[in-house]
């Protein structure tokens, strides 16, 4: 396999099949656009497993994504996609940057889910953008934006119900999309690295905020999510 790309938490490799890639999940942990870095033992293993289970669920719910199968503890086989330079954030409850930007109290339940876009660019530190920016920057056209928004809304509906059944609140999450054979599909990962997940009774944080906020027991939080969803 030839290394195609290495990001903060994953490596992507070419395979013998030009239409398939291998995604390798690392133990690296980063926050605040890479300003805070560490290593969390077994994080890659846990995130690979969680992402695989969730992608399988989304397939069953009619949401097309790049996942094909798990091939090892740290690796999944995926469809080749050309990633769209867009991060899609769905927020159900106030937490993180939106609280700092808008003076919202953490834990505030929104009347309706908020959908935000950021420009996927390390150089510019992933700035928030709107649909007009997306069009001007030629990131996506109007029809593609519509498809992405519909996907994000459906993913939110599916995952809120799924997590609530195992006593987890889906606070917010980030999605990435790509094009596979000219069709937009869900890509990247869905894990405690990309979702805020709180215990539904105690509001204990079981996600990357344990690392961001120095709460300790990071991998224990991730493993608790895995244990609940794989029962």
UniProtKB/TrEMBL annotation:
Q: Pfam families this protein is in?
A: SAICAR_synt
Name the catalysed reactions: 5-amino-1-(5-phospho-D-ribosyl)imidazole-4-carboxylate + L-aspartate + ATP = (2S)-2-[5-amino-1-(5-phospho-beta-D-ribosyl)imidazole-4-carboxamido]succinate + ADP + phosphate + 2 H(+)
Write down the top EC class of this protein: ligase
Q: Which intervals hold domain SAICAR synthetase/ADE2 N-terminal?
A: 3-228
Sorted alphabetically, which InterPro entries does this protein's record hold?
Answer: SAICAR_synt/ADE2_N, SAICAR_synt_PurC, SAICAR_synth, SAICAR_synthetase, SAICAR_synthetase_CS
- What HAMAP family does the record tag this protein with? SAICAR_synth
* Family according to the record: Belongs to the SAICAR synthetase family.
Name this protein carries in UniProt? Phosphoribosylaminoimidazole-succinocarboxamide synthase
